[in-house]
Amino acid sequence: MAEWLYEAGIGEARAALVVDGRIVEARIERDDEGPRVGAVVAARLIEAGRSGRDALVALDWPGEPPATLGDVPPGTSTGARIAVEITRMALCERGRDKPARARMAEPGAVPGDGPDLRARIAASGVPVNLLHPTAADRLEAAGWSEMIDCVRTGHWPFAGGALWVDATPAMVLIDIDGEGDALALAKTGAVEAAAVIRCCGIGGSIGIDFPSLPGRAERRAIDAAIDAALPPPFERTAVNGFGFMQIIRRRDRPSLIEQVRLDPVRTDAALLLRRAERAVGAGVLTLTARGAVIDHIAARPGWIAQLEQRCGRPIRLVADPAATGGGHAQ
């Protein structure tokens, strides 16, 4: 049985596609990630680019984030007001950020944000169950924390081996590590790598380093294993003699790898708020974490107000230099 579990958390929404009690897809949508794919936004042209291409606009959005624009109508001057449609959200990469990507909106398009996470999973046709902090924690029962820990560390163990996953500016790299028969390890690793790509919504360029397989038939067996395990659409190379395959998938939103690993403070703040929503007791609810996490929450009084409303208790924030991870709430 397949179902989506959806949780409207404080600062972020979470969803997990659970099949037979196991998470096969996990998605996080954060409040301040900018306009979503499909959003129609007013904008101001900053740079016209060359021959109307590779232009840059400032979006009418909090903070006026930039977006690249692929095609500008001839004669549009710098400073002109236009309407654009977001085709790729802003992305965070190690050492740099990529602005959102947009195109000219259709004439008469109504301004508004694109479909949110809840709308997108509802459109999948799979039943959606809305979770509440006062009910049983079904996300946790399905392995949410363990999955987030795997994303955070980049270590995904499986029987007989493990995957090491890292996001570089060029591509996401997946290394298959283990002992025993190389072909058996490569086949299992192919299935596990495809599962991680699907689970974390990894797009763009992906490199998988398999154990070296000298035989062409063996390498073709790995190609077939990836084709069978990874949902389309995607393009790939064949496994080469050094055991490397490159996969290209559409990339229009941040992946879970980028969200969790490249923004650890935000990740731990969300984890702490999630724990706080489920804390039992009465009186002041104290949230304790390292200073960066506490400062992140304190800078967003709306989050604190939501937490107080949801739990019916006053909130106190305490910075503890010895605290690790997401801290604790009690």
Q: What does this molecule look like?
A:
The protein is α+β, with helices and mostly antiparallel strands. Helices cover 28% and strands 32% of the residues. It has 4 domains: 2-33 and 116-138, 2-keto-3-deoxy-galactonokinase, substrate binding domain (Nucleotidyltransferase, domain 5); 40-104, Beta Barrel (OB fold (Dihydrolipoamide Acetyltransferase, E2P)); 144-256, no CATH class; 263-329, no CATH class. It has helices at 117-122, 138-141, 144-153, 182-200, 216-229, 256-261, 264-277, 291-298, 301-311, and strands at 2-8, 12-19, 22-30, 40-47, 55-59, 66-69, 81-88, 91-93, 96-98, 100-104, 128-130, 155-158, 161-167, 172-178, 204-209, 235-236, 244-249, 285-289, 315-319, 328-329. The strands form 5 sheets. It has a 6-stranded mixed beta sheet with strand order 12-13-14-15-17-16. A 5-stranded mixed barrel has the order 4-5-6-10-7. α4 runs parallel beside α5 and α7 (264-277) packs across α8 (291-298). It is globular. The model has no long low-confidence stretch (mean pLDDT 94).
